[in-house]
Write a structure and sequence with these properties.
The chain is of the alpha/beta class. It folds into 2 domains: 155 residues, Aspartate Aminotransferase, domain 1, CATH 3.90.1150.10; 258 residues, Type I PLP-dependent aspartate aminotransferase-like (Major domain) (Aspartate Aminotransferase, domain 2). The chain is 36% helix and 13% strand. The chain is built from 12 helices and 13 strands. The strands form 3 sheets. Strands 2-8-7-6-5-3-4 form a 7-stranded mixed beta sheet, sandwiched between helices. A 4-stranded antiparallel beta sheet has the order 9-10-13-12. It is globular and about 75 Å long. The structure holds pyridoxal-5'-phosphate.
């Protein structure tokens, strides 16, 4: 056997022993040549979703029409929120699924700044997802530049040191807003330690769980987190643009308010009172009518993650990311690929970034259907990151092996040179 044949055999053996292997069949993976490593950006369609949604469309909407509001639709946001709460270590009444992550970030950051009126500092880091930073910049503008936003610098372009972060927080800091897993490098903050330090300085914390939820166990209550938001179309497989969620710790809920006083956040929306009174609890962060179709699509998806269990998912994700990093060291390091993620798994989420000066064209070659044995879908993030998303529900060890072989071949044989470096609109 050649070196690579026996190595591929080893990957197949790992897949056989995988306790989560049966979950792959719950997803629509029709093309045996496709290796999908972008579940951290858009999860794969669960097999059950089309029929589930078909029923919502043709029965609930088509036949029952508006009567469905009284036979399930009105409670659906709550039921789905309770499932999300289980995945993130929150109480059922602390989570509500609504709007997009960006909008929820806005609502909760606004609420925090209104609560902490004496403090004018906002802290995030320079590696945060751009929308998270834009929302904070927008709030500084909205509050007429009374606040100042500090972006904590990264020494290595990969992570943020606790020391630097702590030094940026002082007794004028109202809010610290961070992503639990950083979208480019996969750097994972220690939620418990950071939250404790932020509280010790009298500030509030808002965690964006978008790149963590469904891949990393999260214990919001155990960490005493104030606020959190997150999206459901990445590791939770809710479908493109599926509604996001927000979390507010129980004791804070009645002390804060949403900047959007919409009727779904009113105490009794169907009284049609002309004066706004906020609903008690988390519901005050609802604004308008929930998107019933995309909301309903979350039901089969969340059931799969709950069934698999976060600890088992994390264990497989760590094993796979370690395996992928071993493959990189063995096959790709000498070809100009460098590791763009922390090598310590305790500081890493569920994707691995490999950097290369030809990253963009390598991605194009991987995705091209006429190049190589497999079509590999990772994604590219400026300036030189190839993100390889590991989704333990459906990623196989052999997928990682085959993808690495394609990455090797594309550079060794300069196949990327056939592709233009002109960027697509969505990368
Ligand atoms: C994916 C992601 C978002 C996306 O926000 P949307 O409003 O859903 O587009 C926001 N923040 C982080 C950290 C993300 O990873």
């Amino acid at each position: 056997m050649t070196d690579s044949t026996s190595q591929r055999y080893y990957a197949l053996e790992l897949d056989k022993k995988d306790p989560l292997k049966q979950f792959r069949h719950r997803f629509q993976l029709k093309d045996p040549r496709l290796i999908y490593l972008d579940g951290n950006s858009l999860g794969i369609l669960p097999v059950e979703t089309p029929s589930h949604l078909g029923n919502v469309v043709s029965e609930e909407w088509g036949r029952e029409l508006i009567r469905s509001w009284n036979t399930g639709w009105y409670e659906r946001s709550k039921q789905i929120s309770e499932k999300i709460a289980k995945l993130i270590g929150a109480k059922p009444n602390e989570v509500i699924v609504t709007d997009s992550t960006s909008v929820n970030l806005f609502k909760l950051s606004y609420a925090a700044l209104k609560l902490k009126t004496g403090r004018k500092g906002i802290v995030t880091d320079e590696l945060n997802f751009p929308t998270d930073i834009y929302v904070l910049q927008g709030l500084v503008d909205l509050f007429q530049n009374q606040h100042h936003l500090t972006l904590v610098k990264s020494a290595d372009g990969m992570g943020i040191s606790l020391y630097e972060l702590e030094n940026s927080i002082n007794d004028g800091t109202a809010l610290v807003s961070l992503s639990h897993v950083l979208y480019k490098s996969s750097f994972l903050y220690n939620m418990k330690v950071v939250t404790g330090r932020v509280h010790a300085k009298g500030a509030m914390i808002l965690w964006d769980l978008s790149h963590a939820v469904g891949a990393v166990p999260i214990d919001l209550n155990g960490c005493n987190v104030d606020f959190a938001v997150g999206c459901t179309y990445k590791y939770l497989n809710g479908g493109p643009g599926s509604p996001a969620f927000l979390y507010v710790r129980e004791d804070l809920q009645d002390k804060i308010q949403s900047p959007v006083w919409g009727w779904f956040g009113q105490k009794n929306p169907f009284d049609f009172q002309i004066n706004y009174e906020p609903a008690s609890g988390i519901d005050r962060f609802l604004a308008g009518t929930p998107p019933m179709l995309s909301l309903s699509a979350l039901n089969p998806s969340l059931d799969i993650s709950l069934e698999a269990g976060m600890d088992a998912l994390r264990q497989k994700s760590v094993e796979q990311s370690k395996y992928l990093i071993d493959l990189w060291r063995h096959f790709l390091d000498i070809l100009g690929y460098t590791l763009g993620s922390p090598s310590d798994e305790n500081q890493r989420g569920s994707h691995v970034s490999l950097k290369h000066k030809e990253a963009y064209r390598i991605c194009k070659a991987l995705i091209d259907e006429n190049t190589g044995k497999f079509t590999v879908i990772p994604d590219f993030r400026e300036p030189d990151n190839i993100r390889l998303g590991i989704t333990p529900l459906y990623t196989r060890f052999v997928d990682l092996f085959d993808a690495v072989m394609e990455m090797k071949d594309i550079v060794e044989n300069r196949i990327y040179e056939k592709f233009s470096s002109q960027k697509d609109k969505v990368t």
